[in-house]
Amino acid sequence: MSNSALACLGNIFVEPKKALQDIRPHIAWWLYPIIITIIVIVAYNVWYFSTVDIGWLANQMIAAMGDKYSGEQLDQIRQTFSRKYFLIFGIIGGTLGIVVISLLQALYFFMVSKIGGYEEQSYGRWFNFAAWTTFPNVLAYIAAAIAYFFASSQTSFYAVDITSLNTLLFHLPMSHPLMGVASSVHLTTFWVLGLMCVGFAQWTKQSLAKSVVIVLAPWVIIYALILIVKLA
Q1: Helical packing angle, 3-14 and 16-23, nearest 10°
Q2: Residue 33 CA neighbour count, 13 Å, CB half
Q3: Is residue 117 exposed (0-12), middle (13-18) or buried (19+ Cβ within 10 Å)?
Q4: Backbone region of residue 117 per phi and psi (left: phi > 0; alpha: psi in -120 to 50; beta: other values)
Q5: In 10 A of CB 149, how many CB atoms?
Q6: In angstroms, rounded to a whole number, what is the distance separating the alpha carbons of residues 217 and 219?
Q7: Facing residues of 164 across strands?
Q8: Could you give the angle at the alpha carbon of 165 between the alpha carbons of 52 and 144, nearest 5°?
Q9: Which one of 19, 130, 161, 178 has the largest count of C-beta atoms within 10 Å of its C-beta?
Q10: DSSP label of 157
Q11: What residue spans define the domains of the chain?
Q12: What is the maximum alpha-carbon separation in the chain?
């Protein structure tokens, strides 16, 4: 890792405008935030699912399913809830999630910049942009790991996710239809969106107000649709 790339890993938190300007000509630098985030996600999931009381966790998840399944179906589901299952699901889901979200976010920025006739940018540059602006999400996993260090082995994955809005504000049980939505939004989510707004304005030479609308539009639409479906 070059000294400049290493500096950007710190600057994205303290001098984001400088970091986003420095990464612009270095498309391949997307590797650094992505790899570090994946390492943190894998390490956290391996630690949590290797030490949590799996029997207790399986019972909690079965109870949260409520009346959605018959007793026979719940028994079959319970048999799949092994430590190996949770490890594989947590690692693959977490790592794929960060990559897929960055790919989709980059595609959106690429298409918007093309359609809007903004300053020319390749898809690779926008993927680099997405990878770096989402890097602060790694702090949510670090915070969860610290919380779990002080918790017991009978603590749910969501309970130690201390930066999520559900843990901080709503306290919805796992059986609630909106629990997943509330748990998917973290304090770092707002940090990431702020970085994207500032960075998009910087890269495209558009106003900050216009950039805010562009960046937030897909998030507002997606969450609105999820809420409609969940509450229907």
Answers
A1: 140
A2: 30
A3: exposed
A4: left
A5: 9
A6: 6
A7: 186
A8: 30
A9: 130
A10: T
A11: 3-231
A12: 59
And the tokens for 28? 């391949």
* Joined tokens for residue 210: 């216009």
Q: How many residues does the chain have?
A: 232
Per-residue pLDDT tens, the chain, 232 aa: give them.
Answer: 566 999 999 999 999 999 999 999 999 999 999 999 999 999 999 999 999 999 999 999 888 886 777 778 888 888 899 999 999 999 999 999 999 999 999 999 999 999 999 987 899 999 999 999 999 999 999 999 999 999 999 999 999 999 999 999 999 998 888 999 999 999 999 999 999 999 999 999 999 999 999 999 999 999 999 999 988 7
Q: How far apart are CA 78 and CA 105, in angstroms?
A: 36
**37: which 2 tokens?**
């985030």
| Lookup: tokens for 60 | 């909690």
- The closest of 101, 103, 87 to 42, measured between CA atoms, is 87
Helices within the chain (DSSP H only): 3-14, 16-23, 31-51, 54-64, 71-80, 83-116, 123-133, 138-149, 165, 179-184, 187-204, 208-231
